[in-house]
Each structure stands twice: as structure tokens, then as C-alpha cells.
Amino acid sequence: MTKEEILSAFRYRHACKEFDTNKIIPKEDFDFILETARLSPSSFGLEPWHFVVVQDPALREALKENAWGAPKKLDTASHFLLGLTMKSTLMKWDTAYLQDFMRRVQDLPEEVIQGKSKFIEQYQKSDFELTDDRRLFDWAAKQSYIAMGNMMTAAAMIGIDSCPIEGFKQETTEQILKDKLGIDTDKYGISYMLAFGYRVVEPREKTRRCIDEVVTWK
Ligand SMILES: Cc1cc2nc3c(=O)[nH]c(=O)nc-3n(C[C@H](O)[C@H](O)[C@H](O)COP(=O)(O)O)c2cc1C
């Protein structure tokens, strides 16, 4: 791809408010989008995310109640994703989950796992002061958003529209995740929703500050 083609995908991407209900994203294309999330970078490579794709109309309806930023997207999106983030029960430096993750996924030898755990401990306790559940969750959530950005860009590159959504009540939505979607909310919280599909109307022209206002060179 040329630089101009990549930039035109960035220009093409916009927060799409309503999708064409006659068009469904092909499985192969949505798998491609999910793969860009899976391959996203994260601090220490801990992948503190999980993605739930909600296609059941009844579950989408249930999500609407507390999601003021989402109703039209829940009604019209071809695919509707929930971006979950791991909580401190999984992400704190001393959890069994992290030990197992480093062994099973990262394929690290025991002595390296011990060293890395100590490093993560120091990082969480002192470098970034991730000293309570909320701070740890917000730190992990920042990384979940990298996957979100990658999914939106990847989608735009293949002509698929998207809309990121934070317009919902976190606590009550989590209760719905627990009650209706069977998600273990002791382990996962919701960071964002992300709708995908195909636009019905062209967006207004993008507004952004100029490059000199957003970049400083020293
Ligand atoms: C984290 C985040 C949360 C957002 N939440 C909502 C939302 O709840 N509903 C909505 O319609 N748009 C939402 N947006 C879209 C923004 O309003 C939009 O990206 C911004 O105005 C820039 O416009 P553009 O994406 O079309 O270039 C959100 C965007 C981000 C990045």
C-alpha cells in the first residue's frame, strides 16, 4: 500500500452513526479485523483484553438501556463488539493468572518468569503507582484501546465503517454483562463498545487541529 492509500483509509474512517442493515460484513473480513486486535501491542505483552461480539438481537436490546451513545448502532451494526479489560484480579503482578500467562502464552522459562514478575511488581507499585484496583484497570484499559484503534484502522482499510462508543453507564452495563452475557465481572470490566458495518450517509468533512498545533519538535 502507498502512503496516500493508507492516509485515505484514515480519512475514510469516521464515527459512523448509522449502518446499512442490508449489508453484512463477510466472516473473512471480520476475522481479519479481530486478528489486528489480537496482534496489538500491550505493556509487558500482557494482552489485558477480551472481545465479545454481540449478534443476538435480544442481548443488543438489553445493552441499549444504559448506553445512550449506542442505540442506533446497536440496531443497525453488522457486528457489535464489546471491548473488555482485565481487572486487578488478573492484572496485579502477583496473580496466578499472570504466572500462568507467562508460562503458557509467552513460553518463558521459570527463572525469566520470576524476574519479569519482580519487574512488573516494581512497575506497578512504584514506577506508575498502579496501587489500587481502579488505577490498575485504567492502565490495562489504555492498552485495550490500542486494539480498538487498530481494529478501526484495519476496518477502514478494507472499506468497513466503525464507531467507537463510550456513551454508556459502566457500572450498570457491567451488571448486564454479568446477568445476561455470563461474563465474570470480577475478572473483566467494560472499556468500550465498537460497532462495525457500512455507512448509509456520507459523513461531514473531518475537522482536526493543524499539524503544528499537535506536534512540537525540539
Ligand atoms: C473513546 C471514544 C468514545 C466515543 N464515544 C462515542 C459514543 O458514545 N457515541 C458516538 O456516536 N461517538 C462516539 N465517539 C466518536 C467521536 O465522537 C468521534 O470519533 C470524534 O468526534 C471524531 O470524529 P471522527 O471519528 O468522525 O473523525 C467516541 C470516540 C472515541 C475515541
Task: Set down the secondary structure blueprint.
Layout: H1 3-12, H2 27-38, E1 49-53, H3 57-64, H4 71-76, E2 79-86, H5 88-91, H6 96-104, H7 110-127, H8 133-157, E3 161-165, H9 170-181, E4 188-197, H10 211-214
Antiparallel strand pairs: 1-2, 2-4, 3-4
Bound molecules: flavin mononucleotide.
Q: Count of helical segments?
A: 10
Total beta strands: 4
Strand order of the largest sheet: 1-2-4-3
Q: Ligands in the structure?
A: flavin mononucleotide
Main structural class: alpha+beta
Cofactor: FMN
Keywords: Flavoprotein, FMN, NAD, NADP, Oxidoreductase
Family: Belongs to the nitroreductase family.
Protein name: NAD(P)H-dependent oxidoreductase
What is the structure about, briefly put?
The chain has 218 residues and is of the alpha+beta class. 50% of the residues lie in helices and 13% in strands.
Task: Give an overview in words.
The chain is built from 10 helices and 4 strands, in the order ααβααβααααβαβα. The protein has 218 residues and is an alpha+beta fold. The protein has a domain at 21-88 and 144-214: NADH Oxidase (3-Layer(aba) Sandwich), CATH 3.40.109.10. A 4-stranded antiparallel beta sheet has the order 1-2-4-3, sandwiched between helices. The longest helix is centred in the middle third of the chain and has 25 residues, at 133-157. The two termini are 31 Å apart. The site of flavin mononucleotide has 12 residues, from β3. Flavin mononucleotide is lined by residues 14-15, 17, 69, 163-167, 192, 203, 206. Residues 11-198 form the Nitroreductase domain. InterPro entries: NfsB-like (IPR033878), Nitroreductase (IPR029479), Nitroreductase-like (IPR000415), Nitroreductase/BluB (IPR050627).
